[in-house]
Amino acid sequence: MEILKKLFRPFAVVPFAGWLFGGFVAVLLEYYLGDLVSYYLYLPKIPVLFGTLIMLKEPVLIPSVIAYDLLIYLVPMLLLGKFLAPITNGIATMLEKRPLWVATLVHLVALYGILHLWSGINDYRVLVVKLTMISIILTLSLNIINGYQGEFSCSHPGFMALGAYTSSALTLLLFTNDKLYGEALLPPALGPWLFPLVLIAGGVVAAIGSLIVAIPSFRTRGDYLAIISLAFMFIVKSAVENLEVLGGPRGMSSQPNYASLTVVFVWMALCVWIIHNFTTSIMGKALNAVRDNEAAANSMTVNTRKTKMTAFMFGAFWAGVAGGLFAHVLRYVNPSTFGIQKLAEILAMVYFGGLNSIYGSIVGAVSISVLSEALRPLELFKWIIIPLILILVMIFRPHGLISFTEFDVKGIIRPRNKKPSEGVE
Known about the structure:
Blueprint: H1 2-8, H2 16-40, H3 52-57, H4 62-83, H5 85-96, H6 100-119, H7 123-148, H8 156-175, H9 191-217, H10 224-241, E1 252-253, H11 261-280, H12 282-292, H13 294-299, H14 304-330, E2 332-333, H15 340-353, H16 358-374, H17 382-396, H18 409-413, H19 420-423
Antiparallel strand pairs: 1-2
Helix pairs in contact: 2-4, 2-5, 2-6, 6-7, 7-11, 7-14, 7-15, 7-16, 8-9, 8-10, 8-14, 9-10, 9-14, 11-12, 12-14, 15-16
């Protein structure tokens, strides 16, 4: 660890704007020179996921993949970050003087530009980026319940299913000529504009469905929430399997292609912003008080039951929104998707990244999603490697990699040519 700190110490002066600029140049290099570099390195094509898939399929190409990643990504980003630090710090200083929302919006637009260019190489990258951003929404929403609230819920796949099937049914009924529902009730041109309302409707149905879990379980103590929420997940899965109006065990398909990269990115950014405001609000502080000591919080006039119910419904709402996006990204939804395996994936993301931390949720979702795709060629062994990594994290970091850490937007966008005490008021 000390060696890594010494290696990256010269780059501590690089602000986040500098890394974004370096990333933008790197993806431009790949966009225009990726084919040429991969040809001279004897690679069959541009590495899709930083070359991990190629390395697992053809180990003899590992040196070529490492050389490609160094030439295209690592070296340009480090060199540009270091030598252009005075310029990027000047940009960060200029943005720091603007309202916080302006600086945040500029950084988000730059990040979206990088993701758009990187994923534009092929459709597989687009799918991976979309599913990773949906995983961030899911992880954040579950962290509200399992982290900030201190309970252990297993019902998130059920909430996700409610949102996915509700939004799918609405878009197929309203905007598509579908064999299940017949002719569209509204002009298809209205679909993209009303899609946000459809996603919100899916989230509302999931939030209402969460009352089935919350009302009985919050009258009890101990591990009853985990048992009831697990039962709820199986109830939802069995219900949609036996409802022909929702496609039954065959599932639903042909959803309109409304979940573009831009749409998913905007919903992810909104989720991070809204959940950050929620966890730092009075309600969020009350939720932490209930988690730490419910009796003491109750004696200090905190309405513990209302606080827990609100947080549970709030988390379920965002799980429903993620389910709606998931269904329209894949354009197919099946009851078997929302089972134990999906639950294990979401729980792994939450506990790998860290409890009570938006940073941790983002790190956990991105890490597990990318690792899962990178290990796809190993097939069965993938589900041995990922649990082993999670076990090691639980042994050495019981609360996750980044736990109990506040999400500091000012700290992210501030210039690095100042000390932390000078950069943040």
